[in-house]
Amino acid sequence: MSSQTTPARKIVVGVAGGIAAYKACQIIRAFKEVGDDVRVVPTAAALNFVGKATFEALSGNPVSTTVFDQVDRVQHVKIGQEADLIVIAPATADLMARLAAGRADDLLAATILVATCPVVIAPAMHTEMWFNPATVANVNTLRERGITVIEPAHGRLTGKDTGPGRLPDPEQIVDIANAIASGVTLPRDLEGKQVLITAGGTQEHIDPVRFIGNSSSGKQGFALAEIAAQRGAKVTIVAGNTVELSTPAGAEVIKVTSTRDMFEAVQARATDADFIVMAAAVADFRPDTQASSKLKKGSDEDALSVIHLLENPDILATTVQRRTAGELSKTPVIVGFAAETGDEKTSALEYAQAKLHKKGCDLLMCNEVGVCKVFGHDDNQGWILDAHGGVEEVKQGSKLEVAAAIWDRATAFQQ
Predict the structure, then answer these.
(1) CA-closest candidate to residue 77, choices 18, 12, 19
(2) Which tens digit of pLDDT belongs to each residue from 73-93?
(3) How far is the CA of 364 from the CAs of 11, 62, 336, 383, 389, in angstroms?
(4) Predicted local distance difference test score (pLDDT) of residue 263
């Protein structure tokens, strides 16, 4: 999660009466840890799951559910007016129905009716309730009014049920909310689109213990998948080595190890994709042989000191070539990534421009990498290059913010 350097914000955390209400405690703590002033506004039903004292202790502010508390301070108006960001997690089907109807029958509903700041709603309910036509209509109504309703996660629900409707991980909710507060929007412009994304680093084994690899964490690729899923896409992630990352709502994750593994997985799935984003940091070369047992110093000194390399298949160039040859059932927008370092003769941007021309992709995101830059970090920056010669600077921001900028360009390029 990105650290906050801006002045303290006034954050309202709304909590509805669902079993996932306990996860709101992590959300409150996350905002508090970066210096935000947090006010918790639960529904009366939420206090059946988490007590008032817990919310007050975590937030450092009084907790109320009714418009009739602190009437002299007109808190049913003041809380919403002063808020910089409102996050409701979990939001039940009942709460969303009341908000869509414009009700103001408790403090949380009244606060939303007054608020002019960004509002982010994280639903949590059983699958049947999420897909019920009434809930679908209410979600659409709220989105049309400018409220961000994020997609629920897929997974274990209350009881033995499994499916869409699970509350996303608290860290995901906080990261999305911070991105929305920074100006990111989540239009539903990827509804019905198939998105294929590569993420993380590949590993080329020398023996069962040692490998050639890089420091890629996979965070940018998963951020791209998160934004795509929240914009309505069906997402497949082909992931190499990554840190522990939460799976975006509804996304399928296919784990691979080597560049050849990733090549095969991408080519098998590229044919039906509307967008293909190659964010993985793949190894360009691999050892020509892989020892079946660990190489030992002394007895295997030659094998350890001299490693002969073979060139790996070029996933990006091959995919572009297949599109040009008409081998894909669709004509996807293809986005490449360039992790570059400049030198005394050529800048990182110039190297990226040359790569874009060579690979033939539609867009290319260039990151200038190196020690303490990009890999493994929560922030990113660089340039988005397009096949028409355009260059757009992407200023430093969270990887979700960078992902949103890339998707804005990718969807515009398709048009």
Answers:
(1) 12
(2) 777 899 999 999 999 999 999
(3) 36, 49, 5, 8, 11
(4) 98
Alpha helices, DSSP H only, in 42-132? 52-59, 75-82, 93-100, 107-114, 127-131
> What's 73's DSSP letter?
G
Closest CA to 272 of 198, 324, 196: 196
Cα-based distances in Å from 360 to 76, 296, 335, 378: 56, 44, 10, 29
Distance CA 352, CA 211 (A): 27
* Domains of the chain and any CATH numbers: 10-181 (3.40.50.1950), 194-414 (3.40.50.10300)
Annotated catalytic sites, by residue?
214
Q: Which residues are annotated binding-site positions for CTP?
A: 284, 294, 313-316, 337, 355, 359
- Binding site membership: which residues? 284, 294, 313-316, 337, 355, 359
Q: What is the pLDDT of residue 304?
A: 73
Strands (E), 256-332: 275-278, 285-287, 309-311
Q: Which residues of the chain have pLDDT under 50?
A: 1-4, 371-372
Residue type present at position 72: D
Q: For 364, what's the count of Cα atoms within 13 Å in the CB-facing half-sphere?
A: 30
Residues near 125 by Cβ (< 8 Å), separated by ≥ 6?
A: 18, 92, 93, 135, 152, 165
